[in-house]
Amino acid sequence: MKRAMSESRETTPRAAPLKAPAQQTEEALASLRQHWQSEPLAEALNTLDATELGPEGQRWSRAVGLHFPTPASAIRGVQPLAGNEYADGLRAPSAAVAMPSMSSALLVAPAPPCGHGVFAMRPLQAGQRLGEYTGEARRYDLWCEEIKARKVARRGAESSASPFILEELYAAWAGIGGGEGVVIDAFAKGNAMRFINCSCQPNCSFKNVGAGFEKHGRLLVVTSRDIEAFEQLSVDYGWYFDPATLAEVRAEATKAYNEDLSHLQALSKSRASVSASSSVRILQDVLQEVPGPTEFLRRYVDRAQLTRLVESKKSFSQAKSYLEIPEALWHFYEVLGADRVGISCRCALDKSLNATGLCSGIIGRPLQATHLGREKQ
Ligand SMILES: C[S@@+](CC[C@H](N)C(=O)[O-])C[C@H]1O[C@@H](n2cnc3c(N)ncnc32)[C@H](O)[C@@H]1O
């Protein structure tokens, strides 16, 4: 990956000793495991052995001011950054901004199905400043171009203008910065805050703490409500509001629906087993109340509505846009579209990340409860 020349200043990793000795780390992990004992999370925590929490993870944590070692599998290829690096001609804000040191309550650990996450190991109060979100401060326009080039290289020339690929979800918007906007990109370099997952019921937010007109380049993670011990920290990534991304999600939703037409027709006629399309098989299972492991897409189908659609013997026809997908199916296909783009949300599959079970299905999309119905494109 070609990166823009950096005008960054060198950051000096803090040389503080790792504060939690092995025994304290083991105790912390045991209590986390105990707390989430019947969840997939507890099983994932069992994978953390001495190698995972060995010297590599200890060095990384020390460099970013974390109390506990960070699992080696989480930080492969990720450079620890105690403070931002400034690239693309951006300069560090000149006015000194006092930043809190990293909270000693934080522990990075596996958090299935979202990779690794950040856990609060003791209760935290609303409004608490937990530390800085560090990474490379990049000009938004240049960073976007780079992401798009990578996307075209990976997905082909017909890729849309939407910048979504995995890397993008590590970049946090840091204000307009007097120009085209600034993001803090923590994909390749950062600290523990880069592991905070997205939740539809977030418990933290980013606060911009730049000074004067240089209101960019410094982001604080602040709790937005009281947090209980062993909860995961979460924020709302908010990228749903990127128009190009939304257009791509909906184009993929329409494509997926049109690809399924003949199978949907079979579904409406006989409810016989549907073979070729896995998405229609999910609808079939919902209709027939087939029990089984929770397939996350099932969450976005209302059984009564789907039954009415099927019983109406409607014939399914090509949709030109997602607005033409039948009412009972649009949410299901919108989430499927988001999954194809790479931004489907699975927060409610992890109780530590979202205990309410309410999830919009798309990373950064508002919950249906506050966002009823389909929007116009
Ligand atoms: C900023 S990182 C968070 C740390 C990441 N879990 C890791 O282990 O490196 C963003 C990535 O985490 C995952 N992620 C975060 N929140 C998610 C969510 N609500 N649903 C699904 N995946 C999520 C996605 O893979 C996303 O690209």
UniProtKB/TrEMBL annotation:
Keywords: Chromosome, Methyltransferase, Nucleus, S-adenosyl-L-methionine, Transferase. Residues 100-238 form the SET domain. This is SET domain-containing protein. Gene3D superfamilies: SET domain. Residues 1-24 are annotated as: Disordered. It is found in: Chromosome; Nucleus. PROSITE patterns: SET. Coiled coil: none annotated.
